[in-house]
Design goal:
oxidoreductase activity; binds fe (ii) ion; binds 2-oxoglutaric acid; demethylase activity; alpha+beta; Jelly Rolls; 264 residues; disordered C terminus; ALKBH4; Oxoglu/Fe-dep_dioxygenase_dom
Length: 264
């Protein structure tokens, strides 16, 4: 059984109460990063391309360098121009030394979510952003362990075939008793949920980016400030920076990586 614990307490930026930081795990949440007018325009732009709102599945739109669900990397030959509703806010992202160049806009009808995963370490830069709009949602974090890495879904074909890098390592086999114990430990490793309000920007770096899985549980309600609240349609823009050539690879201290689910 998964143990749910209280979310750790953030530090509020002394000069801007809209900025919350969990410094030890590299997590930042910025409230009201976009205006309500921006939000309305983004929702309209999304549905101009994908009119359905009443489906039961998450819908994704890809901009910039596409994510390739067979390699968990990016496709260099597929580039979709990035809409101005995204490029307009890039100069306000908290990290300006490098900027995202891959954008996935997703619509989550109420009741849908995304399974626990760690976005690929080797293919994307450290900073991982999620801009939420349309509805609040709870994002669940859980420290990932070696068994999570073992469950990693390897790419169907290696994006590194053309590069000089070795393909992703297959985790060492372990004896089944040890594996069973680890599985138990991990199932019992506590998870906690963080409410992402509409118009907020989440930035994951360090441990929260590499050492924790993140997920959205598929359910119709969330508990916000002690009240059960119905989810409405929620949208997000996941922003990543594609690593290229020599930058592909990962020497971080965290165990393995879980690939994204390839269902979109
Ligand atoms: O919808 C979100 O906020 C996060 C989505 C996500 O984790 C991803 O696309 O990798
Ligand atoms: Fe993710």
């Amino acid at each position: 059984m998964t143990i749910i614990q209280e979310a750790p307490t953030p530090t509020v930026d002394p000069s801007n109460p809209n900025i919350l930081r969990w410094k030890d795990i590299g997590l930042t949440l910025i409230y009201e990063f976009i205006t309500e007018a921006d939000e309305a325009a983004m929702i309209e732009a999304f549905h101009a391309q994908d009119p359905a709102r009443d489906g039961k599945k998450r819908i994704s739109q890809h901009f910039g360098h596409h994510f390739d669900y067979t390699t968990f990397g990016s496709v260099d030959t597929k580039f979709t121009p990035v809409p101005t509703y995204i490029t307009d806010f890039l100069p306000r992202l908290p990290i300006q030394t490098y900027l995202p160049d891959q954008f996935t806009v997703q619509y989550y009808p109420p009741g849908t979510g995304i399974p626990p995963h760690v976005d690929t370490h080797s293919m994307f830069g450290e900073a991982l952003y999620s801009l939420s709009f349309g509805s609040a949602v709870a994002m669940q974090f859980r420290m990932s362990g070696p068994n999570d890495a073992r469950k990693m879904r390897l790419p169907k074909r290696s994006a590194q075939a053309e590069s000089t890098e070795a393909p992703p390592a297959v985790p060492d086999p372990v004896d089944s008793r040890e594996q069973g114990q680890q599985q138990l430990d991990e199932e019992q490793s506590p998870s906690w949920e963080l409410i992402l309000p509409p118009r907020s920007l989440l930035l994951m770096t360090g441990p929260s980016r590499y050492g924790y899985t993140h997920a959205i549980r598929p359910r119709k309600t969330d508990v916000i400030d002690g009240r059960t609240v119905q989810r409405r349609g929620r949208y997000s823009i996941t922003m990543r920076t594609v690593r290229r050539g020599d930058e592909i690879g990962c020497d971080c201290a965290f165990p393995g990586e879980l690939a994204l689910t390839g269902d979109t």
